[in-house]
Amino acid sequence: MTSLVISNAEQIVTLEGTGPLRGESLRSVTPDARASIGIEGDLFESVGHASGGDSEFDASGCSVVPGFVDCHTHLPFFGWRADEDTARLSGIRYETLHREEGGIFRSARLLSEATDEEALAFSLRLASEMLRSGTTSFETKSGYGLSIEAELRQLRLARRLAEMVPQTVVSTCLAAHAVPKDGSAGQWVGQAANELLPAAASEDLATSVDVYVESIAFALEHAARLHEAAKSLGLRMRMHADQLEDGQGGSFAARWGFVSADHLNHTSLPAAGDLAASDTAAVLLPGATFTLRQSKKPPARNFIEEGAIVALGSDLNPGTSPIRSMPFVMALACRLYGLRPLEALAASTVNAAHVCGLGDTLGRLAPGYRADAVVLDVPNFEQICYRPDHDPVVAVVCGGEVLHVAPGAEGRLRRGP
Ligand code: NIG
Ligand code: FE
Question: What is the mean pLDDT of residues 17-40?
Fold first, then answer.
């Protein structure tokens, strides 16, 4: 028996197919007109025609897209760093703030001074706001620990957060984010590879490992060491690459079969070609470009046109991207990077699910996929990108349940027996 029907939508964008959408498969995506969607339990049952559900959401005049997948966040964290942003607006560089009590070190201290309950309450509130903007799954990361124990604590907090939210959550151990004050980069990476990653893997605290390759942080040789350790533990590898300078991270990640290379502002055209020819996703984070007012943008059109797997994330963090709305991120990707609305949508759903290792189960409106969907109060989804300050979300369906209905739209929902 169909438990929920989303009826009479003006437009639905199913993003059907298998695997991530890239090259020709991305170019051939078209939205469908006039459709209803049937949900049974937490899965889509029928997409196109459906009727007679226990409950019904009337989507007349609306468009429906898959629930957004935010494949790059720095949750859980505690506290903001607005004064650093103000300093940057007066001309101080991010790199200059990244020392002593500033930047990542400051967020590590704020997290260490917060109780578990305080850190969870802070992060939970952000996760609920993300749900109301249509994010039905997201990635969490460590990286504000900077010691073995503190990194494990942040990963355990991420696990508790995952248990408290309705969204699907995947966890990444950002094992190398800032070089701890009392050691060298090499020493820390050795410890991370020999102690942190095996401990995280034995407690099942992460499915991926991440490394920040930048001259203020870690080098490619450290990424190689972590890759080796991750591989032996069955963990997937990601990289913060080429964000502030061209550190050759993008092509390195592609060559070594990393799941993703993220940021990529300074990635060269040959390296864009390397990524396009590989299965390493180019994860674009325009929220950070916007916040840091970076004039250097990733070669996004090259990624798309040469067939790379392109995904988008919020990069939600207190330093470089205090941004949690995927509709806003999609608008930024179109404005700043030249993505087209359909490319931005695929990058925020099916391709982001692929980056999270969830591509077979969510990110599309297709029978058998997890019933995560966003109903938009606009007849075509392009308006997400066209009207960046309009909140288009009318309803969010997460795991088959209508978990958010925007004020004024309550009458569209008829709850069944
Ligand atoms: O993805 N660049 C490294 N990591 C984050 C920023 C972390 C911070 O400043 O707290 C990023 O932009
Ligand atoms: Fe990041």
Answer: 96
Residues 416, 3: contact at Cβ < 8 Å? Answer: yes
Instruction: Among 174, 210, 317, say which to mutate for ligand 1: greatest number of ligand atoms within 8 Å of CB.
Output: 317
Which residues have CB less than 5 Å away from ligand 2 (the ion)?
Answer: 315
* Coil vs helix vs strand at 73: strand
What CATH number has the domain bearing residue 330? 3.20.20.140
The residues facing 404 across adjacent strands are 396
The total of structural domains in the chain comes to 2
* Ligand with smallest separation from the Cα of 172: 2
Query: What letter would DSSP give residue 321?
Result: B
Read off the CATH number of the domain in which 9 is found.
Answer: 2.30.40.10
pLDDT digits (tens, 9 = 90+) for 90-115: 999 999 999 889 999 999 999 999 99
- List C-alpha distances in Å: 54 to 43, 64, 65, 401, 416: 15, 20, 22, 12, 4
Domain span holding position 182: 69-355
At residue 185 the predicted structure's pLDDT band, cuts being 50, 70 and 90, is very high
- pTM value is 0.98
Cα of 72 to ligand 2 centre, how many Å?
Answer: 6
Pocket of ligand 1 (CB under 6 A): 103-104, 107, 212, 240, 243, 288, 315, 317-320
The closest of 225, 229, 227, 246 to 238, measured between CA atoms, is: 227
The pair of three-digit structure tokens given for residue 280, joined into one six-digit string: 């390493």
Taking CA atoms only, the protein residue closest to ligand 1 atom 9 is 319
Q: Does residue 416 surpass a pLDDT of 90?
A: no
